[in-house]
Amino acid sequence: MSCDLGYIPGHLKMELKPVVPNFSVGEELFYRADPAKCKIPYDNISLRDISHNRSFMPPSSTLDDVLFNIDPTKNFEKYNDKVVVVLRIASLPNGQTYTKEFKTDDGASVVVITLKHDPHPCMYPHSVFEITVNGIIVDSDNYSQTLNTKPLKKVRSRIRQELSSMIQSGIVDQSEEIQIITEP
């Protein structure tokens, strides 16, 4: 599949570039957000689609690249009403990517959030925090049956806290405990 959007710069087009599963300490993630929702992002994080762009190491993508619209059904080139939040990867204990496991209190369900490179034809650096519940990838179609269930309410809250902490601090650090900043 190729990119047919003429305004997308060449370095963002996937073409024949490979998926790069490993991330690097010092690499940056660029998250497009509404300015008003950055200070207290907890309630505004969709757990169905946690996408952003990666910079790669050495950097080949810039923070403004995440503002390009890659949906051909939308009639604009860039998101002018959004800001870019930069998250820097501070540690990767497994040496390859961010992965964190959450369990329900009774241990019956395991939810895993994993940082993955997920390129699109018009956005090669596109990446996601992928969430799985007992091995099933959570998406828009199955969210209500997987992650959005009563037994997983506390886990959803912990994932939102984890992601909020990243957005507020600008750091992706698997070795750190969640720290929510309440002061603007």
Low-pLDDT sequence parts: 178-184
Distance between the termini: 43 Å
Number of helices: 1
> Roughly what fraction of the amino acids lie in strands?
15-25%
What does the overall shape look like?
Answer: globular
Instruction: Tell me, rounded to a whole number, the average pLDDT.
Output: 87
Describe the structure.
This protein is mostly beta strands and 184 residues long. The protein has one helix at residues 153-169, and strands at residues 28-33, 51-54, 83-91, 99-103, 110-117, 126-133, 136-137, 171-173. The longest helix has 17 residues, at 153-169. Residues 178-184 have low confidence and may be disordered.
Labels describing this entry:
184 residues; mainly beta; eight-stranded mixed β-sheet; 1 helix; 8 strands; 9% helix; globular; disordered C terminus
Question: How are the SSEs placed, and which strands pair?
Answer:
Elements: E1 28-33, E2 51-54, E3 83-91, E4 99-103, E5 110-117, E6 126-133, E7 136-137, H1 153-169, E8 171-173
Parallel strand pairs: 3-8
Antiparallel strand pairs: 1-2, 1-3, 2-6, 4-5, 5-6, 6-7
